[in-house]
Amino acid sequence: MKFSACLAALFSALFVFLPAAAAAPVDAGHARVELISERDAALPGETVYAALKMDLDDGWHVYWRNAGDAGLPPQVLVQPASDIRPGAVGDIVWPVPHLLPVVEGEIMDYGYDHQVVLPFPITIPDNAMGPVTLDVIADYLICEDTCVPEQAHVKLTLETDQAAENIRNGELIGKWIAKSDVPFPGEARVLKKNLDWSLSLRMDGGFGKVRSIRFFPYGHDILHPASQPVELGRHGATLSLSAADITAVSKPLEGVIVIEQDGGGRTGYRISAAEGAPLPDTSGLGPAGGMPGLEVAAWKLILLAILGGLVLNLMPCVLPVLSMKAFGMVSAVSSGQAGEVRRHGIWYTAGVLISFAVLAAVIVALRAATGPITLGFQLQSAPVVAILVLVMFAVGLWLMGMFELGTSLQNLGSGLADRGGDAGAFFTGVLAAVVGSPCVGPFLGVGLGAVMGHSAPVVFAFFLAMGFGLALPFLVLSFVPNLYRLLPRPGKWMDTLKQFFAFPMFLTAAWLAKVLGDLAGSGAVAWTAAGAVAIAFAAWLWQRETRLPRILAAVTLALAVYGVTERAMAPAPAIGGSSAYAAKYEAGTWSAGEVQSMIAEGRPVFVDFTASWCATCQVNKATTLKSKPVHEFFEANDVAFLVADFTRKDPAIAAELARHQRAGVPMYLWYPAGSETPQVLPEILNPGLVTSLPVNP
User: Which residues pair with 335 in a beta bridge?
Assistant: First the structure.
């Protein structure tokens, strides 16, 4: 074959692997516009999300669905050459806007600057064969000091012979869909007195600590530039609005309430306020951003954190690691020196506290970069879970006696062997924090949800207090002689006990491997199993105690970790919400729309916000949700059982957790028949609690 033919074949092969949906952004003047999709390929008849991605010049902005006093919102104009017809292109899902003051106090607009992604659903033709193209013109008005109409002709091509995700675009579109408004979980009412209107918003429990509340109308009922003073109440808030026209008093007031939390997170609630008297308990506590008693509230959060950390010691996700700590304490007591026992407790506490401080720093940083964050995010990363599987397996091998860290250090001649117990205590504290932090047990659910909206110092204080509570029992045991002297005396039984404690670690590794399978598929699990074998091989080589085998052991270990993390990057097929309960319930996948549909049918609704990495969720599932009394209760009352699986990142689920002031799973919502306001249940369930829920509001 000639060189030119080979080169052509090479380029042809290269283009086969390029994403079908890839297209270069179009520079329309003051914005770079791109048409993206959550898929590279979709099946005929399937509905997927596409989006206009707009990167704007500094100082320029585009508009929301209601532009305010001046401006026009972007439009997606389907062209005649498009394979996807206009009727198959849905409405834009509008992210919550920002205020755009044009002339302070006189002209106010609503819109976006820097970057905006405008998602919308598209339906692939039923008779599609081969590639289909969405051919549109993005038509928009973009403004700085002056306004310029611009158009960008953009296209998107999708294959239709299979379904293939575009992970990067899918995450970006999901992030912006999560920034859109959701139904208000309460009641709204407007009192119209001439041009002075009072909009009262009632929600059980109120809005908590908020920085600001602003109403963005769908129409032009109010004066857009006017200030909107807010007064908080025990169960809501009241906004003072200025009407634009005294004749506009007969229709409901519709729009979006945007609540900005003290930590910077923004949530938009869609409302339709009928005319009527103000709702009770929606005023009387002072203005937003100035609620008294913050320090008291923060100290209450700290107390909840300490209590929650104490309870974490009893959670199933932490118990396997605590078996290591128990062995370490027995080993320390065997020295007969109180100082060594105390040092062991201090090093363990230091490992826990440093790990929780790092977790708090990551949460604060991610919150500043991406908005609200949820607990357990680290176990939504397949590479992190894969590494944890290997770590737990390696710890099990150490407990079984496959290798001795202290001996290795002593052979290096550095004298560090004497501190091997301290290092082991510190490492045990780190493991307890990493595995225990995603668990949301009693006292932590409410506290974590509330603290996520506080300032960075309060977040750090909360997580350090939670870590202190987790470490406290062993710390007390280390410093009270009458307690640690109750531990059994050392003997040959210690080797047997150490080996016994390896099995909880292997079981923890198996549980994490199941989580890894949900995140990245069976291939990642197989590679991780191979990595575990490589670790065992490296441990065997290390015991040769000569230079070459130990070099080979280190290389084997490095290659195992690299191969496992590289394979863990691949996504698994989408997780179905019903499979986890197929044996008991006809469970559906949660969505806000599905909840509304079930409510409209007059059915009670139970929603399980869960994840395969959440041990508390699995315990509740086994002891309560799969129990016969609960199954019979749900069946007798025609309860709609919905599952929100948070094993992998899901912006919609994260937004719903934040809306109910929860920072992670489990969360359980109960909607009595016909009620749109759910009851948030405790994190720990029992059959009696569930079967006593009110079926009717």
Answer: none
